[in-house]
Every structure is written in structure tokens, then in C-alpha cells.
Amino acid sequence: MWSRVPQPLMNLTFLLLALVALWMIGEFSNSVNTTGEGEVGYIVSYEGSIYFIQGEHIQQPDIENFSYEDHSMGENAIVFSRYANRFESVSMLDNPSKLLMKNIKNGDKVRIWYSQVFESYPAKIKVQHIEKF
After folding, report:
1. Taking CA 51 as the corner, what is the angle to CA 69 and CA 40, rounded to the nearest 5 degrees?
2. Phi, psi of 101 (to 5 degrees)
3. Each residue's pLDDT tens digit in the chain (133 positions)?
4. DSSP readout, 108-133?
């Protein structure tokens, strides 16, 4: 059967099968187990960036007055939050488009699952799944 199929067509078929297999492997590796606990926190929008903040005693005024300031001192730039003592962690979302699909707005309490934390300050996280509380 294969002897009658032209070589370029056989090569194309093999290439397409290989691409489909690679795509399936990529999708499988990106899948997230949402049965785990995930991380619980609040979504805050500030100056065009979306932040995920966590803390036990976060109140609505903390979310409304959230600011992230950048101050430079000589050669070393020090980046800090004016409310750093109130938040356990502050992370920036790498792909905020997931919020639009879930109708999540500023101040909403959410649970997120993420696949990657990028080395930056604040940490940037790649969200795989997000649920609104």
C-alpha cells in the first residue's frame, strides 16, 4: 500500500502526525489539576496591571487603596508596597485575560492555580485556572 503513495505525501502525513502528537503532549503538560487547593486571595487592578494579593486580615479599604510604588535610591532600586505589612504576598498576573472570561473584577475574592512563577519583584505568576468565590 505504501509503495503506491508518493514520497512527498508520505512525508507530509508523517509530519502532520508528529505535529498532532506534539500538540497533544503540550496540552497534557499544561493541564492543571483543579482538585488541589490552589491559592486564595484577592484581585486588585492598579495602573493597568492586575495583582493577586493574599493575607488573613485584608479588608475592602486595603483593596481600594492598594498602590505599588517604585522608589530608587542610588544604584539600587527598591520596590515596595506601602501596605506590605498587611499582605502576605503580592503577585502580578502574567496573563490577565483569564479574568475577562470569568467576569472577575477588582476586589473579587478568587482561588487560582498557576503553573509558573517568574523571577521578578513582585513575582509574576502564570495563571492556569481561576475561580471566583
Report:
1. 135
2. -70, -25
3. 556 878 888 899 999 999 999 988 876 655 555 556 788 999 988 888 888 998 888 888 888 888 765 433 334 444 444 445 578 888 888 877 766 667 888 888 999 888 778 888 778 888 888 888 8
4. -EEEEEEEEEESSSSEEEEEEEEEE-
Residues 110 and 104 sit within 8 Å (Cβ to Cβ): yes
What whole-number distance in Å separates Cα of residue 21 and Cα of residue 124?
30
Residue for grid cell 502576605: 88
Q: Which tens digits make up the pLDDT trace of 110-128?
A: 998 887 788 887 788 888 8
Question: Which of 68, 40, 34, 50 lies closest to 105, judged by CA?
Answer: 50
- Length of the chain counted residue by residue: 133
CB 117 within 8 A of CB 88: no
CA distance 89 to 123: 9
Grid coordinates belonging to 9:
505525501
Is the distance from CB of 98 to CB of 127 less than 8 angstroms? yes
The whole-angstrom separation of Cα 28 and Cα 37 is 20
